[in-house]
Design a protein that fits this description.
- The chain is an all-alpha fold and about 100 residues long.
- The protein has helices at about 5-15, 25-45, 75-80.
- The chain has a domain at about 5-45: Orthogonal Bundle (Histone, subunit A), CATH 1.10.20.
- The protein is flat.
- The mean pLDDT is about 90.
Length: about 100
């Protein structure tokens, strides 16, 4: 196994994802993530030399509608319900910090 998931790594990921866990939840997550790594390591044992890579899982193609530009509401109407705004944009709290 390349890396073992520990409490420190789960804390780092939880911080980045803005999640909070109690000890019981954290232990369950550590266990689940380690089980996923074991599964991936098991897949790495397979010999795939004679298997052609898949670009798509099926030969089916999606039938999509044509994209069309339409404006249901104006910018002014959209900003009318915004809790914080300036003349042209929504204002949102900053979530990325400079280091």
């Amino acid at each position: 196994m390349a890396q073992k998931i520990d409490e420190k790594l789960v804390d780092q990921v939880a911080h980045l994802a803005r999640l909070e866990f109690d000890n019981e939840q954290k232990n369950a997550i550590i266990n689940d993530m380690n089980n996923m790594l074991v599964f991936v390591d098991k897949l790495n044992e397979l010999n795939t030399d004679v298997i052609e890579p898949l670009v798509y899982m099926t030969d089916e193609t999606n039938v999509l509608r044509e994209d069309g530009v339409k404006q249901d509401i104006t910018q002014k109407e959209a900003l009318a319900n915004a809790p914080k705004k300036d003349s042209d944009y929504f204002k949102v709290p900053k979530v990325v910090e400079k280091k």
